[in-house]
């Protein structure tokens, strides 16, 4: 990597590091900014300001610039052009030119790590304005993260020893501590000494001499379920993505060993670990062995897909029970003058923040003509024990603009109406939450012939969506069996929490 530049989506520069050949780098960025590909090849023969190889053609969008050995950068960086690696986050482009034959995962991973570091350092979203407001901080971070074209420090826990986060509360606490220590004649370690301890450490992600009065480590596993169901609630396609975050406040050089009850969930090709994990031991023993960085970091991520034979067997109830924390049956029909819908939702585990969005058939007569009834759910009672209802949630009809393909005229925007059903919480012991409703698609004063003519334009949406939170568990079955501390003799408080989030699409 020859350096890093941050631009907006149009390619306008916001911040750049130094480049050995600024003109070549700028021309390469100008050519790459026209593409949304992660890797854009800029051939040397056509001039870097010209069209960027096959990435601008319709039949080359799915090809990776590294797939063709004739297009790979050479070790000298001359004669065959240059590749630009880029990621797009929150309206910003993070770009780096590569003129040597390296694994493209390296620069792309570095740019992703850079964005996560900026999220840690910048108070609020990483935007053009916040990057400009923290210009000196970002440049200092890039100076520490990239040395000689190679990634050096990429973890926030490491970088905070060299670049102080611009946190007013942290600075206030530091100032208070300095004043108290100075008045008491207590010498304070400087930031330089902490940085030197990190440099002198045998592990690049953890400095020596860390001490805490109380030692604790927390593991937070978050799983996200994505699935497609048929109207009867049978899963057609499903996948689970997971991320385990670790927060470590441990003294010395602790060596942790983490085991799972069902490590098969973390497949060989679907799991990615932090660089502190001893991967060879994981492959042999299925034990996550590591010396953790100090502070918060992501220990592992994974993608799990339930076995496809299970998804396609005749025992749909068994398949749904193993994958979904709820059961749902739905019906959405469209008749001569309107539509009717019915939903029945039962929780298999405690769920919160349930939101069901049902697009209504178009054209709808008027939002005020939608008639909906909800029942069931939790039994809510007042202080005197009287039933007060409300357990089945609340509903509303909202309008939103969507783009619709209009043939040769291209895309046009139109307004559609969406029925939104919200349920705060639903437990297995609650009654099923039921929604029934109907709405008109044609004005009642029209004649039957006119109705038949207008009905030809009425279309039922193909699907609706359900989002929810599962605060008490995940979906893959991955569970922590044990977390052991080696190499230190102190007592450790260990905490493990698993939560889930789901986005499910149901066909109508």
UniProtKB/TrEMBL annotation:
Keyword Protein transport applies: yes
Record keywords, A-Z: Membrane, Protein transport, Transport
Alphabetized Gene3D superfamilies for the sequence: 3.30.450.60, Mu homology domain, subdomain B (2.60.40.1170)
GO BP: intracellular protein transport; vesicle-mediated transport
Compositional bias (Basic and acidic residues): 62-73
Domain of life: Eukaryota
GO cellular component, one term: endomembrane system
Pfam families in UniProt: Adap_comp_sub
Family statement drawn from the similarity comment of this UniProt entry: Belongs to the adaptor complexes medium subunit family.
Protein name: MHD domain-containing protein
């Amino acid at each position: 990597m020859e350096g890093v530049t941050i631009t907006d989506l149009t390619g306008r520069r916001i911040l750049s590091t130094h480049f050995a050949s600024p003109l070549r780098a700028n021309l390469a960025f100008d050519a790459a900014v026209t593409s949304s590909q992660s890797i854009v090849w800029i051939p040397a023969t056509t001039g870097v300001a010209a069209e960027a190889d096959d990435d601008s053609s319709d039949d080359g969008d799915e090809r990776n610039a590294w797939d063709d050995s004739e297009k790979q950068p050479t070790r000298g960086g001359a004669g065959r052009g240059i590749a630009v690696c880029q990621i797009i986050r929150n309206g910003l482009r993070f770009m780096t030119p590569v003129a040597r034959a390296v694994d493209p995962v390296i620069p792309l991973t570095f740019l992703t790590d850079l964005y996560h570091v900026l999220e840690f350092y910048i108070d609020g979203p990483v935007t053009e304005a916040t990057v400009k407001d923290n210009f000196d901080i970002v440049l200092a971070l890039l100076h520490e993260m990239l040395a000689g074209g190679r990634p050096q420090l990429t973890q926030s826990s490491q970088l905070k020893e060299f670049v102080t986060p611009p946190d007013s509360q942290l600075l206030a606490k530091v100032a208070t501590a300095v004043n108290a220590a100075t008045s008491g004649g207590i010498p304070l370690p400087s930031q330089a000494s902490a940085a030197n301890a990190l440099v002198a450490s045998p592990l690049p992600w953890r400095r020596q001499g860390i001490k805490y009065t109380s030692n604790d480590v927390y593991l937070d596993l978050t799983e996200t379920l994505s699935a497609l169901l048929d109207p009867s609630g049978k899963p057609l396609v499903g996948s689970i993505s997971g991320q385990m975050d670790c927060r470590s406040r441990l003294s010395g050089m602790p060596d942790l060993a983490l085991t799972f009850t069902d490590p098969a969930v973390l497949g060989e090709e679907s799991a990615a670990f932090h660089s502190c994990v001893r991967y060879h031991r994981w492959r042999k023993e299925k034990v996550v062995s590591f010396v953790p960085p100090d502070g918060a970091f992501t220990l592992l991520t994974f993608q799990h897909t339930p076995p496809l034979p299970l998804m396609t067997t005749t025992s749909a109830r068994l398949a749904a029970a193993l994958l979904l924390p709820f059961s749902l049956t739905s019906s959405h029909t469209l008749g001569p003058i309107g539509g009717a819908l019915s939903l029945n939702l039962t929780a298999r585990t405690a769920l919160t923040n349930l939101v069901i969005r049902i697009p209504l058939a178009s054209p709808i007569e008027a939002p005020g003509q939608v008639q909906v009834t909800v029942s069931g759910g939790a039994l809510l009672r007042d202080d005197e024990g009287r039933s007060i209802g409300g357990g089945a949630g609340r509903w509303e009809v909202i309008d939103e603009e969507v783009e619709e393909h209009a043939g040769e005229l291209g895309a046009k925007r139109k307004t559609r109406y969406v029925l939104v059903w919200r349920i705060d919480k639903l437990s297995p012991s609650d009654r099923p939450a039921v929604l029934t409703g109907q709405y008109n698609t044609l004005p009642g004063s029209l004649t039957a012939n006119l109705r038949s003519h207008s009905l030809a334009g009425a279309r039922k949406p193909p699907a609706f969506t359900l989002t929810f939170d599962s605060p008490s568990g995940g979906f893959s079955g991955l569970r922590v069996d044990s977390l052991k501390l080696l190499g230190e003799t102190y007592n450790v408080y260990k905490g493990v929490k698993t939560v889930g989030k789901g986005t499910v699409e149901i066909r109508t």
